[in-house]
Amino acid sequence: MAPSRPGPKAPITAPPLDFSHLPPRGWERVEAFATRYLKVPKGTGAGDPFLLRPWQLDIIKGLFPQCTETRPRQGLLSLPRGNGKTALAAVLALYALFADDTASAQVLIVASDERQARHVFTAARRMIELAPSLDEQVHVYTDRIVVPHTGSELRTLPADVGALQGWDPSLMIVDELHVVTEDVWEAVSSASGKRETSLTLAISTPSDSVESVMFKLVEYGRADDDASFYFKEYAAPAGCALDDETAWYTANPALDDFLHIDAMRAQSRTIREPAFRRYRLGQWVGSEDTWLKFGVWDGLANPDRVVAPGSRVALGFDGSVSGDSTALYGATIEARPHIFLVGVWNNPGSDDWKVPRAEVRAAVDRAFSTYDVVELAADPWGWQSELQSWAETYGERRVVEFNTGYRKRMAPATDLMYQAIQDGRVSHDADPTLRAHISNAQAVTTAQGDVLQKDERKRKRRIDAAIAAVVAHARAHHYLTHKPKKRAVSW
Ligand SMILES: Nc1ncnc2c1ncn2[C@@H]1O[C@H](COP(=O)(O)OP(=O)(O)OP(=O)(O)O)[C@@H](O)[C@H]1O
Ligand SMILES: [Mg+2]
Questions:
Q1: pLDDT single digits (tens) 101-122
Q2: Which atom of ligand 1 is nearest to the CA of 176?
Q3: Are 272 and 288 in contact, with CB atoms under 8 Å apart?
Q4: What is the number of structural domains in the chain?
Q5: Which residues contact 375 (CB under 8 A, 6 or more apart)?
Q6: For a designed S-S bond to 254, which of 194, 259, 327, 399 qualifies (C-beta 3.0 to 4.6 A apart)?
Q7: Is 82 a pocket residue for ligand 1 (Cβ < 6 Å)?
Q8: Is the pLDDT of residue 490 over 60?
């Protein structure tokens, strides 16, 4: 790798640094190391000793408990912009590089692109430059800082599965996890764990999708039942007003300290609401062009409701063969239909995955024997032979084709569901797949009306469950307003 300064590195002449005067391994040692050796690299207080704030120390206590306690293996900090995520990552990286009493420490900094990874690296390098006693211990290269006396190193790595193989990190930091894909996160988290203590730490603002790795980890952290996973989230309360400055303080621990309120006020007037909520208030608001406003669907959840056996229901089915999800949802036939999961089968992300058709058939059979199924409306694509056999078993009047690609049918169904959602005339069982697919769905306006489509740029964000629910709801609505009558079927 090319050295940052041309020519071979001069040998290190300074004796190894003695950290024996610092407290033993743990958060007190991090604090003492930062205060005595590090300076604020830029921004407010640039050049002053790096004094960790009480809220930062709380986080560090969680990540680096005193020596007798077990350290977590993974951590996630969700913080809005400008709260010192990158600076804190640099402090922890330097502590791990120099002072964590670890043989041949390996500190890896991963980010979606090199520029992002360089933010932490640049901050760390600047802090070293500001600390002569550290500076004389290291060789600095373009993307690597080496401490020859201890064999420790700090490196930046691209967030790419191949580049992440074969390391043995003592600390791995992902700056801005929200842009990292699932396979990269798996590669990151499986790289560590070979040492007695190692930490994979992600520090990020929220992503724009509840189907992201970050949201999965946020939900995991919120559940709070794994001591090896440290989680801290700073966010304004859900649904707060955009200009509620008290909520701003809840979300931004650095506000009025090294984050300035006038900058936030200016932004609140100039950037779009979802972006402000996400970046400045730490809230999960979905992407900008979704079909429903964030939180509207969640507001209709009624997870305690059990659809009683024998209830009159309509079923919507959107099948796939391999790529997308296969989704089967029900809707009760009543003035305020309740939408519920019957079965959903998701491709976990592999190319050769096939939907387990026998399981799908069993779920359909179970639904027909449990409920009074007035109609199963199914997209026939890839499922003709099953549809045929269900029609033979359950009657041709009850099993009908519903081509979800046919806008003349799908647009009115979508509109009906939209109106019902806006008016609060529908409830649902809080099924997580449906919730994710609803939040992925974008509305596209056609001559026939709005229909749902997925984000073309993010094809993995599926919407099949939303389609099945729209179909189930439309058919339930139909039977609420029309008496069942004999109908001709298309085959
Ligand atoms: N105690 C402190 N902790 C963290 N940063 C501090 C502290 N004191 C001063 N600062 C300065 O505050 C600024 C914090 O910015 P930083 O880039 O670290 O925030 P961020 O959350 O990563 O922002 P972004 O979301 O834009 O990436 C830096 O210039 C840093 O030097
Ligand atoms: Mg940053």
A1: 888 999 999 877 767 778 999 9
A2: 27
A3: yes
A4: 2
A5: 314, 315, 397, 398, 399, 400, 475, 479
A6: 259
A7: yes
A8: no
Say how far residue 171 (Cα) sits from the centre of its chain. Answer: 21
Atom 16 of ligand 1, residue of closest alpha carbon = 84
Q: What domain range is 165 assigned to?
A: 27-234
Task: Report how far residue 173's alpha carbon sits from residue 190's, in angstroms, rounded to the nearest whole number.
Answer: 13
Residues 49-87 pLDDT 10s: 999 999 999 999 999 998 777 899 999 999 999 999 999
Here the CATH number for the domain that contains residue 311 is 3.30.420.240
85 and 230 within one domain = yes
Q: Which ligand is nearest to the CA of 77?
A: 1
Ligand 1 atom index nearest CA of 83: 21
The string of DSSP codes covering 449-467 is: EEEEE--TT-TTS--HHHH
Same domain, 314 and 199: no
The ligand placed nearest to the CA atom of residue 88 is: 1
327, 417 Cβ separation under 8 angstroms: no
Does any ligand 1 atom lie closer than 6 A to the CB of residue 53? yes
In the prediction, which pLDDT does 181 show? 81
Q: Would the CB of 40 count as within 6 Å of ligand 1?
A: yes
Give the per-residue pLDDT at 1.
Answer: 39
Which residue puts its alpha carbon closest to atom 6 of ligand 1? 84
Measured by CA distance, the residue closest to atom 31 of ligand 1 is 42
Is ligand 1 within 6 A of the CB of residue 42? Answer: yes
Q: What is the CATH number of the domain that holds 143?
A: 3.40.50.300
User: Is residue 410 within 8 Å of 404, Cβ to Cβ?
Assistant: yes
Cβ of 83 below 6 Å from ligand 1: yes
Residue 168 alpha carbon to ligand 1 centre in Å: 28
Residue whose CA lies nearest to ligand 1 atom number 3: 84
> Is 284 within 8 Å of 210 (Cβ atoms)?
yes
The angle at the Cα of 95, spanning 89 to 99, to the nearest 5 degrees, equals 170
| Whole-number Å distance between alpha carbons of 331 and 314 | 5
Question: Looking at the structure, do residues 321 and 176 belong to the same domain, yes or no?
Answer: no
For residue 95, the Cα-to-chain-centroid distance in whole angstroms is 28
